[in-house]
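Fold this sequence, please.
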Amino acid sequence: MFYSLFDGLTPEEIRTLYRKLAHQHHPDKGGETEKMKELNRIYKEVLAKASKDDPKFDIHHEEKLMEKIQQVINLEDVKIEVLGTWLWITGETYQHKDFLRENGFFFSKHKIAWYYRNEAEQGKWKWSAKPLEEIRHKYGSQEIHNRSQKLTLV
């Protein structure tokens, strides 16, 4: 059902389309569990195939991102948000700064926020003064609201 939708797409385009489809078909959004399972299976297959020619693309990044979310999910008074392929932590982060630093997060003084990025992206981007709102608009955003829910990165 979903295979033909991913034909000829780059890994980044595959990820974007997957997030859109997952939002439509996720059981928490009124979709069917079986369709979501099929979408997840196909997504992993087409992403692996499309990314084997792109050495900078880390197919395991989403797994690492989920691990990072699990590390910070219970921090009090913070907002956890996935913007594109980066994880951003905002809010009352000062009380958690040592924990965040020890767990591989970096602080952006210009955005007053902590972030985690794919290691392959290290050094790829030059410093940017773009506000988080502009980044949200360009790359999409998923806020982690319910700390007790089973997380699915979409």
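The chain has a mean pLDDT of 81. Helices lie at 11-25, 33-51, 61-72, 97-102, 132-139.
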